[in-house]
Amino acid sequence: MIERLTHVTVLVRDSDEALKFYTEKLGFEKVEDSKMPTGDRWLTVRPKGGDVQIVLQQPGAATFGEEGAKEMLRRVGQGTTWAFKVDDCQGTCDELVKKGVKILSSPQDFGFAVEAIFADLYGNAYILMQPPAGPK
């Protein structure tokens, strides 16, 4: 029986630059950073206090084979449509812009939530979602 989602993966070109972006620009915390038996790196981050870890996966030939790693690297920047809960969508966007994060769509009120979209350093899009203030 499936209990809950624990990890999601983002393909990255460089683990160190991705770690710097997610921790310094987005304020995430590093959870795990170790070598896998293949020698490739196992690196995860998450929003502070969050449950789900994001695997920052730099495809390596040791794990995926030479051609498999090349194919995965071609897909960098083509994933995600995840949503992160925020208390203040506009305030979060303003803070991210100050840190150099690209906002793709400014906050809009959709009734069920106020949403904005930002991109990570590779172009993956993420949603910022501010729940409505009260019951509807």
TrEMBL record:
<protein>
    <submittedName>
        <fullName>Glyoxalase family protein</fullName>
    </submittedName>
</protein>
<dbReference type="Pfam" id="PF00903">
    <property type="entry name" value="Glyoxalase"/>
</dbReference>
<dbReference type="InterPro" id="IPR004360">
    <property type="entry name" value="Glyas_Fos-R_dOase_dom"/>
</dbReference>
<dbReference type="InterPro" id="IPR029068">
    <property type="entry name" value="Glyas_Bleomycin-R_OHBP_Dase"/>
</dbReference>
<feature type="domain" description="VOC">
    <location>
        <begin position="4"/>
        <end position="131"/>
    </location>
</feature>
<dbReference type="InterPro" id="IPR037523">
    <property type="entry name" value="VOC_core"/>
</dbReference>
